[in-house]
Design goal:
By secondary structure, this protein is of the alpha+beta class. The chain is built from six helices and three strands. The protein has a single domain, classed as NADH Oxidase, CATH 3.40.109.10. It starts with a helix and ends in a 6-residue tail after the last helix. The structure holds flavin mononucleotide.
C-alpha cells in the first residue's frame, strides 16, 4: 500500500471479527516494531503478545471495553527505562522509543488489512499484575489485533495551520 494511503486508512478499530490472525501476519507486525528506530539504538522495549481466548475476564480488568477482548490477539508494549538512552538533562526516552515501535507495528498491521486501536486508558495496576511485569518495566500502550468488523468514520483533525509553526513559536 502507498504510504499516504496507509496513514489515511489506519483508524481506531473498535469491533473485531473472531477470525484468527495468521502467524505470518503476526510475525510481520512484530518485525515492523523490531525495525523501528530507537534513541542510541537501545531498543528499550518489550512487546507482549496476548492470545485472548480464555482470558476475557482478565482482559476486562485491564481495559473494560468489550471490543478490546473481541480480537484474537492483544499486543502490549512496555518501556524498560533502565535500558533507554537518557538526555543530559535526565529525560529518559524509553516511552518515546516504545511508542515509535508500537506505531510501526500498527501501521504494518493496517498494511496487512488488520485492525488496531491504541489503548492508553488501561488500568496500569491490573496490567502489572496480569502480565507479571517486574519493577522498571512500564506498560505504555495496548492494542487489539484482528480483522476489523467495523468501518472507518470521518477523520477529524485540526487544520495544518493550527498544528504547524514555521521557524519559531
Ligand atoms: C496514545 C493514544 C492513546 C489512546 N488511547 C485510547 C484508549 O484508551 N481508548 C480508545 O478507545 N482509544 C484510544 N486512542 C485512540 C484515539 O481516540 C484515536 O486515535 C483518535 O480519536 C483518532 O481517531 P483514529 O485513530 O480513528 O484516526 C488512543 C490513541 C493514542 C494515539
Amino acid at each position: 500500500m502507498e504510504f499516504s494511503d496507509l496513514v489515511t486508512r489506519r483508524y481506531s478499530v473498535r469491533a473485531y471479527k473472531p477470525d484468527a490472525v495468521p502467524e505470518e501476519m503476526l510475525q510481520k507486525v512484530l518485525e515492523a516494531a523490531q525495525a523501528a528506530p530507537t534513541a542510541a539504538n537501545r531498543q528499550p522495549f518489550q512487546i507482549i503478545v496476548i492470545h485472548t481466548a480464555g482470558r476475557q475476564a482478565e482482559l476486562s480488568r485491564l481495559y473494560h471495553r468489550e471490543w478490546f477482548r473481541q480480537a484474537p490477539v492483544v499486543i502490549g508494549i512496555c518501556a524498560v527505562s533502565g535500558q533507554a538512552w537518557t538526555r543530559r538533562d535526565g529525560v529518559n526516552y524509553a516511552f518515546v522509543d516504545a511508542t515509535i515501535a508500537m506505531d510501526h507495528l500498527i501501521l504494518a498491521a493496517t498494511d496487512l488489512g488488520l485492525g488496531t486501536c491504541w489503548v492508553a486508558a488501561f488500568d496500569p495496576a491490573a496490567a502489572r499484575q496480569l502480565l507479571g511485569l517486574p519493577e522498571g518495566v512500564e506498560p505504555v500502550a495496548f492494542t487489539p489485533l484482528g480483522f476489523p468488523a467495523d468501518t472507518a468514520g470521518p477523520k477529524t483533525r485540526k487544520a495544518l495551520t493550527e498544528l504547524v509553526r514555521y521557524e519559531r513559536w
